[in-house]
Specification:
The chain is an alpha/beta fold and 334 residues long. The protein contains eight helices and ten strands. Helix 3 packs antiparallel against helix 4, helix 5 packs across helix 8 and helix 6 packs across helix 7. The longest helix has 26 residues. The protein is globular.
Length: 334
């Protein structure tokens, strides 16, 4: 993304010149994305008709006594969505829905319409001493749910049975190649749902259970939007963030501890950490959450890329598991 100034022969790059080019880089990046979207969006719309599915189930309010019934109602909804997708000729979506309808799956929510949404539990919510809620970034949908599921399983395997993990695909994520991914619009739409979910979760498990948000990529923007005034969360971990839309951790107005990290090989480091208003639309997300001036607690990730934060045995996954478990003295700091 952007053009890097080449050094003169035998000399070092002019870092000040490179920093000064960030506004120009942002303009070029936005232009490239606009062009790509103009080409890709019409093709995607033509090639991707809406997949039929039933409306979401409406189980009773979530309580310890209705939890199992909630799981069952959403599994039944996923099974019906699978049958409808199969009849529509979308075998891939039908297979995903059918997998989510298996008796072992624990779904707090499911919606097979359009890109789809699902909220899945790994572990025992009512017995867990800690709960980690994963909030995904762009290009996450039922059609790509397998990789999100894999990340949640990896974290749960690392945290152990005393911590439950929830994969929260509770919003329509933006496409990576789109203008939407440059704005906070989807995050603003998602934030009230995430805030309501965490409050319902707190009501279900009680005050003694620690809850953390583990937020990846554009999901960090969602978590930042939801964080203000949210006192039900103990920790918020931001990984692979393009920025949060806030100028500092303090500006999130949350009592939760805020953590931030970025892999050494994560391309998100190329994203200009700036924010501008253009024709009434905010573009960009402001300061880098991993910079010392932002005020978040840093932690090590190792030399990983943008999609590798949940790689088994990586420093990143180990530290995210410590944050999820509340074993904060074991977190290794960058």
């Amino acid at each position: 993304m952007g053009v890097v100034t080449r050094p003169e022969a035998g000399g070092a790059p002019d870092r000040r010149s490179q920093r000064g080019n960030w506004p120009a880089r942002l303009r070029r990046t936005l232009l490239a994305l606009l062009v790509a979207t103009a080409v890709i969006a019409p093709i995607s719309a033509a090639a991707g008709p809406q997949i039929p599915a039933p409306p979401p189930a409406s189980p009773a309010p979530l309580t310890p006594t209705t939890l199992r019934a909630t799981y069952e109602a959403n599994r039944e909804n996923a099974a019906e969505a699978s049958r409808m997708a199969d009849a529509h000729g979308d075998r891939s979506r039908a297979a995903t829905d059918r997998s989510l309808a298996e008796p072992s799956r624990q779904l707090l929510a499911f919606d097979g319409r359009g890109p789809g949404q699902a909220v899945e539990v790994f572990g025992d919510l009512l017995k867990a001493g800690r709960i980690a809620v994963l909030v995904p970034g762009s290009d996450t949908s039922l059609d790509t749910y397998g990789r999100f599921h894999k990340a949640a399983v990896a974290l749960h395997d690392r945290t152990g049975p005393d911590t439950a993990v929830i994969a929260w695909l509770g919003y329509e994520t933006p496409a990576t190649i789109s203008t939407t991914v440059l704005t906070p619009t989807r995050a603003e739409q998602a934030a009230p749902h995430l805030r309501r979910f965490t409050r319902d979760l707190r009501g279900l498990v009680g005050a003694s259970t620690g809850i953390s948000l583990i937020c990846h990529s554009y999901g960090t923007v969602v978590c930042a939007r939801a964080a203000t005034g949210l006192d039900d969360i103990d920790d918020i971990a931001l990984v692979g963030s393009p920025g949060t839309g806030a100028d500092s951790a303090a500006a999130l107005h949350t009592s939760a501890r805020v953590w931030a990290a970025r892999g050494a090989d994560d391309w998100i480091a190329m994203v200009p950490h700036t924010r501008a208003d253009l024709f009434g639309t905010t573009l960009g997300f402001g300061p880098d959450p991993t910079s010392p001036s932002f005020g978040a607690h840093p932690f090590t990730t190792g030399p990983i890329g943008h999609s590798d934060y949940f790689t088994p045995n990586s420093p990143s996954l180990k530290n995210l598991a410590h944050i999820a478990n509340g074993t904060l003295t074991e977190v290794t700091h960058a």
